[in-house]
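Final report, Chapter 2: Outcomes

The project's central promise was a pipeline that accepts a single protein chain and returns its three-dimensional structure in a standardized token representation, suitable for archiving and comparison. That pipeline is now operational. To close this chapter, we reproduce one record exactly as it appears in the project archive, with the input sequence first and the structure output second.
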Amino acid sequence: MNIFFKTCDIRDKNRTIYDIVLHPLMYAPEPFLDNFFINKIFEVKEIEYSALYNYHLKFFLGNQKKKLKEDFFRKIMDIVTLTRSEIIRQSRKTLFSIEKVKLDSRHNKLDKFIKTISEYDEWGILESESERNKKLQEENKALTSLLSEITVEPHHKIDIKNGNKKNLIALFQDLIEIEHPKNSDKVTISTSAVKTWAKIVSLYFTENGKAIPLETALNYFDGTSKLKKSDRIYNISYIDR
């Protein structure tokens, strides 16, 4: 079913130069209509490219319950770029100057058509590869900057020189479990964020200059590994002021 292009009977005296004219007995599936539209680009004057595009866009929007201009734009760009690529391929292969001139002329028309309808590209579909790469580089730069802000370089980490990671983890565990001074039924700090506590240990501390693996720290916070009484060398207490 044709939903993109406005067609008319060859006997229709009210047809416009933008209509795709069909013989009443002609069966024209979508690929044929795609080609007919491309031929329209070759037939009309360059100054009429915008009018040609909008003429069929109006038909498309009026023919759809759920219509999106982007769908139509992508459809047109698909068939135009496909045709353009095929013309370039043929032009490179042909040895006949007359045919090559014809192909180059069509190539030029399609380039001008693309340039004309680029003003309707609200979605950045026609961005060049270099523009996309530039955006990706900018996004990558921003992510790298963000990562550098949240990542601590090894030489900037807090090193546990006297004692070991278990002493630190025991201190954090006691801090997590400490009761609220005015309500013994409540803890002061959230106890559910065990992975966050493990990350704090792994990301911000070293043990005698050596990294503390996240999995190792997590095992102590989630109960997989147990601390000994001797690991708890610090005591946290509440001072009533």
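Archive annotation: DSSP finds eight helices and seven strands in the chain.
This record, like all others produced under the grant, will remain available to the consortium after the project formally closes.
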